[in-house]
Amino acid sequence: MLACLSELPFTPHEYQVRTAQKVLSEMGCRALIADEVGLGKTIEAGLVIKELLLTGQAKKILILTPASLVQQWWSELNEKFGINFWVSRKGPWAWSGQFVIGSIDKAKREEHRRYILENSYDLVVIDEAHKLKNRKTDNWSLVAELKTKGLVLLTATPMHNKVEEVYNLVCLLKPELFSDYDSFLEHYQLNPKTLISDLREKLQDVMIRNQTKENGVKNISRKISLTPVEPSELEKEIYRQIKAYPGTFLAFTLCKEFCSSLSALYDTLRKKGEYQLLPLLEECDPSPKLRHLDAILDRHRGKIIIFTEYVQTQYYIARYLNERDIKFLIFNGMLNRNQKEWVKGLFEKRDIPVMISTDSGSQGLNFQYCDVIVNFDLPWNPMKVEQRIGRIDRLGQISPSVYIYNFVMKNTIEEKIFKVLGEKISLFKECIGELDKILVDNEEDLWEMIEKV
Known about the structure:
alpha/beta; seven-stranded parallel β-sheet; six-stranded parallel β-sheet; 13 strands; about 45% helix; globular
């Protein structure tokens, strides 16, 4: 039993205690905690930190998170564990404390990185650790060079697109589990099924994944609706023309923006000096996606988050809501840290029913007072969809059901995206384990729908 439990002002769930014990006693404080979204990975990491401090096993601890989560981590550790971490907000000297929380994006800058790598730590915790999935990034190389006894990585989505992403995370924790990188890739290309089986077996030595259905701590039902959207005849003609644009990447970008909103498409065409389609765009009626959004707004009286990948689509939806006299907030990466905290507070405490967010609002933030998500457009990555859903399907959600609406524009690239998402979900399940439903309400129907695409 953990010695720190009697000192806590709350009672953690049994699986959270078991996870902390396993990290401490069986994994030597080098572990990947990959619980499903919303199960409290921060609490599990807090238990590990508190136990190490109470038993005198740690005197220097570093926590690295996305910038938007720094304040949230500080509050959780202070209020629930009585640990006062120093928040690194200024120059390199700010990393000098015993217990420091800071942004990983700041930490990887050369002047900060150099200072951090001079230190030796007893424990380093990395939140949203899927940001380390690519070994060619500054994030990965920084963590690989840290001098630390313990390393705990937290992410509900350790694999997004490729098996090698999991390999890259494991190499940070226990590189001895696998052969070198080139051999791994060669083996995977020649024996994909064998490698996946081998990977899943070896992950047991380093990964813990708690699931909702196994622990029964969340009695929340996901109600997921796939909403096909029929474009108008004029929109079909516009889509036909942008598909024919020279340059694969440009055509791909324009097709994705078309599916999101004509406003996003218009903005890109104008910036690139491609004016010939602009008159046609100006003739179009409001997007048919807005009619479906209307029905959702009329059906649900609680708070709703609308996710999109494009800032211009945010403004497009905002103009529409303004015309309907519906109050809303906008959340995106253009806001600074204080502005984001202000928007989060307004959404929670004021009578504002809608927040329109890019994916900067999909990682680590808690919106369990909201029970509806609308995916106005779909990303290529199913784990981004899961991260979005995890903002509301989490511990503390008071509604018995959360409602997810996935919009898909018919006969467009969004149908292809839907198919790719299904294939990536299947790969995730083979490597990592079961995943709650993301795309449709009945997962048994998923492949039947994909075959039709």
